[in-house]
Amino acid sequence: MGNRKSAHLVRNLICLLIVLCCAMGIFLKFTGDSASFFDRLFHPAFSDAPKAGEVEIHQIDVGQGDATLIRTAESAVLIDAGDIGCGDTVVRYLMSRHLKSLDLVIATHPHADHIGGMREVLEQFEVKRIMMPQLSGNLIPTSATYEKLISTIAEKGMFLEKAEPNTVISLPDCEIEILAPVESYQDLNNCSIAGRLISGEFRYFFGGDMEKEAEHDLLQQNPDLKADVQKLSHHGSDTSNTAAFLDAVGAKIALISVGKGNSYGHPHKEVLDRLEKRGIQYYRTDQSGNIVVKWENGEIAVKTSR
Ligand SMILES: [Zn+2]
What we know:
Elements: H1 2-31, H2 34-42, E1 55-59, E2 68-72, E3 76-79, H3 87-96, E4 101-102, E5 104-106, H4 112-115, H5 118-124, E6 126-127, E7 130-132, H6 144-155, E8 160-162, E9 167-171, E10 174-180, E11 194-199, E12 202-206, H7 212-221, E13 229-231, H8 243-249, E14 253-256, H9 269-277, E15 281-284, H10 285-288, E16 291-296, E17 299-304
Parallel strand pairs: 3-5, 4-6, 5-7, 7-8, 12-13, 13-14, 14-15
Antiparallel strand pairs: 1-2, 1-16, 2-3, 9-10, 10-11, 11-12, 16-17
Bound molecules: zinc ion.
């Protein structure tokens, strides 16, 4: 009797398993293949590649660091690649977007929280161009992270391009305008490459960790900094993101790449107050996880992973 009961239970469990598998199969059939189904679970929506005229700015959640993917229908650009130990996160994120190559990688400046994961990216993807700021001799880092990155670039037979302000990089269907550094500085943050993505009517500003001095000099030399979306410099620090600079960019949306409970107190309250006063909507990776801003038919939509 006991044996018959347990045989009956096993049969019921097998039936239940078959029914669950069938239900899962039907569910996946109607929600796309299994990879994109799981992408949708772990990443913000917009899982389809952008169409002609559309732009996506992905602020990848790398904690206290920086990594931004820009995607259009035919181009992909990575700006920074997170801190040491974040290479896997960035590589997996790019793979989840089904990318195989990057048209351009920009290292805004060689601090570890911006170039820490870049070597892994170069190893996993075909990178067509890579760019860093021009640094004076005493500022060239001697860190193992920097040296390994440089040797990987050399091993790949790649040429490390130096950023030249007031130049335009033409990509298949968009442009990156290089704006800064406009001076040589004795501070690596101020040496950050700043630039704008231009695609049709859409503009996105990025400036690495540039500080007030570099913001001021850029503004003096180039008053037209208008952008729809701005990545706040230096993780939303009050040593950057001055009122004059925010006004010059005039963005509707600001993105802040910042680690939860970071020891710097980023983003600083003064900066958040400045954003709120101007009605600039902002998103922080410590609160929202991965953030995707999409430009589509002249409208901006934002999706976050939490
Ligand atoms: Zn930084």
